[in-house]
Amino acid sequence: MSGGETLVEAALRVLNTPDPVEKAKLGDQIANSWLQGLISNPYNPSQPDLIVPDRPARLTNVKLVSPSLMPKLGKAGSLQSRQAIVHSLVHTESWAIDLSWDIIARFGKQESMPREFFDDFVRVAQDEGRHFTLLVARLEELGSFYGALPAHDGLWDSAVATSKDLFARLAVEHCVHEARGLDVLPTTISRFRNGGDNQTAELLEKAVYLKKSLIVLLELSGLNICVHDRVQMGPLKPPFNESARRAAGFGPQWYEPLAVKDFTQ
C-alpha cells in the first residue's frame, strides 16, 4: 500500500471487499497507512474520476427485508432479545464502515476537500471497523452470528439518496441517523444491564461514536444552519442525548430548529 496508491483508490478497495470482517481489517490497515504517511496523496488530480459503486460489495448471507417487516428486537430481557439487538448493531456498524469510505471515495476529489476531511473520516472509518469487530465477537459469544437474523438497509438507502450532494450526506447520515444513535444508546445500555448482561453494556459504553471530527468537518465545509435545509425527513423527535451531543460539539443549534415542539401528542 506504500506505492502510488491514493487514499481514494484505497477506499474503493474497501468498498469492493464483500466480506465485512475482511472489510474492517483492510480499512484498519489503510487507515494506519494514511495516518502514518505511508499513503501520502488523497487523490491524483490528473487521474480520471474513478467509479464509486452505488452499493458496496456485500456478502449475500444476510437476509434483507423492508424496515417495516423487521421483527421486534425486544428489551434485552432474554438471550434471544440480546442476540437480536447486538445483531442489529453489527449490521449498522457494517454499513458505517462503508459509509465512511464511501464519503472519501465519492466526495474527496470532486469537492477538493482539505486534508482534515480525509483525516477525520479515516479515523471515523477505523473506529467503525473496531466497533464492528468487537460487536461481531460479542454476538458470537452470545451464541449467534452475523446473518443469523434478518436486517434492513435503510441506512444505505439514505446514502443513495444523498449520493450527489455532500452537504445532504452529512446532514442526513451523520447529523440525523448517527446522532440518533447517541440518543438511544443510554437506553440500550440500561436494557442490557437490567437484563444482567454487563459485558455487552460495557462494550457499548466504549463504542460511543467519535462525533467531534464531524462537527469540525462541517465547519471547515462552511455548513452550519443550511444543514436544516438538507433534512427532508420530517421533524426530529426528542428526547435528545444532550450531554453526549454537546461533548461531541453538536450543540442544540444544530438540531433544535428541526425538533418537534410538542412530542407528547
- Overall number of strands: 0
Largest sheet: none
> Which overall shape is indicated by the principal axes computed on the Cα atoms?
globular
Alpha-carbon Rg, integer: 18 Å
Q: How much helix is in the residues?
A: 55-70%
Indicate the proportion of strand residues: under 5%
- Secondary structure tally, helices: 10
Describe the structure.
This protein has 265 residues and is an all-alpha fold. The protein has one domain. The protein is 55% helix and 0% strand. It has 10 helices and no strands. Helix 5 packs antiparallel against helix 6. The C terminus is likely disordered.
Quick recap:
The protein is 55% helix and 0% strand.
Brief descriptors of the model:
mainly alpha; disordered C terminus; 265 residues
Give a topology summary.
Elements: H1 7-15, H2 20-35, H3 79-107, H4 115-141, H5 154-161, H6 166-194, H7 198-206, H8 212-220, H9 227-230, H10 242-247
Helix pairs in contact: 1-2, 1-3, 2-4, 3-4, 4-8, 5-6, 6-7
